[in-house]
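Below is the record:
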Amino acid sequence: MKSILMTTLRNKDSSLEEFRSAAMRLGSTLAHNTLSEFTKKEISVITPLGETTGYCFDEPVMLMPILRAGLVLLPPFLTIFPHARVGIIGLKRNETTAIADMYYENLPELTPDENVIILDPMLATGGSALKALHLLEEKGVNPSKIKMVCMIASTEGLKTVKSQFPQLDLIVAQEDLELTKEKFIYPGLGDFGDRFFGTEYTY
């Protein structure tokens, strides 16, 4: 199923409706995969007929979508983590330098034991990811408690991020090997935000 959804996302001829549907369905898959990365607590459950063993996950979680594309992953992740708090940061890539500039930050008070899940569909150079990770580190979050979820990540971006945050748990649906000279993931899917929100894009 993941490969079919990724094919729809990559296809330049996919309609807005097709692209959105595939993005939301892949987001749901990634949310389930992320939950499986956490340790669950064993509990006793009383059924209508008796008692059995069950499992729950009740650790504190903050979801941190990176504007604007990261907002797409928020609804499926809130379905799986309904108790999670949400903190938002806005990063915009400077098209000349390919470096991300932060223009917005609204995070709740964080603790070292807080599980943070960064949501960003595309990881190209790793610049935005590092900006977000350093911010969380400054806020006192333990890097080993951070996960980052992406639909597509470049090999270069993954190496860049892991070189500075080796303990980071990266959950990625697809790894692409190259970046273009403009620092777009290749073959990639284009600009995720523009394609999902229906704004104009050129390459």
Summary: The radius of gyration is 18 Å. The chain has six helices and twelve strands. The chain has a mean pLDDT of 91.
